[in-house]
Design a protein that fits this description.
Mean pLDDT: 92
Number of strands: 11
Number of helices: 7
Helix content: 25-40%
Largest sheet: 11 strands, mixed
Strand order of the largest sheet: 2-1-4-3-5-6-7-8-11-9-10
Number of domains: 2
Low-confidence stretches: 1-16
Structural class: alpha/beta
Strand content: 15-25%
Length: 329
């Protein structure tokens, strides 16, 4: 019962401003939090959680996320282990929750509008931090509804003359953002580089080219209404939410898993460029100049749509062996 009251209270707070926080990590269990609207303490000279001279990697995840769920327990340590960066979660756990309304209404009335409200507040918070001395080198990793939040943050910083270095949009949320909509989906206008990875297309995620660079793993599984609509290794969803939304939780989560693996195995997820999947299927010889990588090896000077196939088990990526279209679809 207490948690229900907390959720109601968080919604009331949002009438007057965002209650979200920046969570800066030293380790996964050792962090500091500050309100996104008053983040001044982050740039204090004695702050052991932030080095103002290093780039900052922000993370935002989606509807009903858990602060100790698998996405964060995998992604945060992977980023911290790379070093030479600040790692920060946008903690909007209450604003992104279903709360007492249940999943359908909770998404529509709480999480969806808050992706815009919190995103704009985060953008203002980033501007304040940069103006206070944080290095203007901000990378924003967003999964699902968190990718849409990142888009709003990027638009807000641009209003103040600050461009995010990149937005990495992992399966940007479809529900509430598919045109026509009152909400504006993340796109390449939101940062200097926007690259997107699309896994659960037309399910939980948009089937729209979003960025300067877009990756479409295993798109042959989604090319038509009769396709199996699953990433390799995933099973058909059985939850009511999956049935009603045509989504698949496993395939949706593969998007962040691919990205996490790419941080330590940057050559595994490489795609070849094509105007669309049907053109890609006709490619017999892949030119290395027409390839691009998910993760640290991404080439921002090679825009376009990139296709590849993966295996069905961890670490999934096949490197150059995934560049050839499957022999059957």
């Amino acid at each position: 019962m207490c948690s229900n009251f907390n959720n109601v209270f968080s919604w009331i707070i949002l009438l007057f401003g965002s209650a979200a926080k920046f969570r800066f990590y030293k380790t996964f269990t050792d962090y500091m939090e500050v309100p996104v609207e008053t983040p001044d303490a982050v740039v204090a000279s004695s702050n052991p959680y932030v080095d103002v001279n290093k780039p900052t990697y922000l993370i935002a995840i989606g509807f009903n996320f858990k602060l100790e769920g698998p996405l964060l327990t995998e992604l945060v340590p992977a980023l911290l282990n790379l070093g030479d960066r600040n790692v920060c979660l946008v903690n909007w756990v209450n604003e992104a929750s279903a709360g007492i309304l249940g999943e359908g209404l909770g998404y529509a009335l709480n999480a969806l509008p808050n992706s815009k409200t919190v995103g704009e507040a985060v953008g203002k918070g980033i501007v304040k931090l940069v103006n206070l001395g944080l290095k203007n080198d901000i990378h924003f990793i967003g999964h699902s509804l968190g990718a849409q939040l990142a888009g709003y943050a990027g638009r807000e910083t641009i209003k103040h003359g600050i461009n995010l270095t990149e937005i990495i949009a992992l399966d940007a949320a479809r529900l509430g953002y598919e045109p026509p909509s009152l909400y504006q989906y993340v796109d390449k206008s939101c940062a200097t580089l926007v690259y997107a990875v699309h896994c659960d297309v037309n399910g939980y995620a948009l089937n729209i080219t979003l960025g300067h660079v877009d990756f479409w793993p295993n798109f042959g599984n989604y090319e038509s209404s009769t396709s199996i609509r699953l990433q390799p290794g995933c099973l058909k969803g059985t939850t009511l939410q999956e049935i009603l939304t045509n989504g698949n939780r496993c395939s949706h989560d593969y998007c962040y898993k691919f990205y996490v693996v790419s941080l330590t195995n940057p050559g595994l997820f490489v795609g070849s460029k094509a105007n669309n999947y049907f053109q890609w299927k006709t490619i017999s010889n892949v030119n290395a100049n027409n390839t691009n990588f998910i993760g640290p090896l991404i080439n921002p000077n090679r825009p376009g749509n990139f296709y590849f196939v993966t295996g069905s088990t961890n670490p999934w990526g096949l490197g150059a062996n995934g560049l050839q279209p499957p022999t059957t679809t």
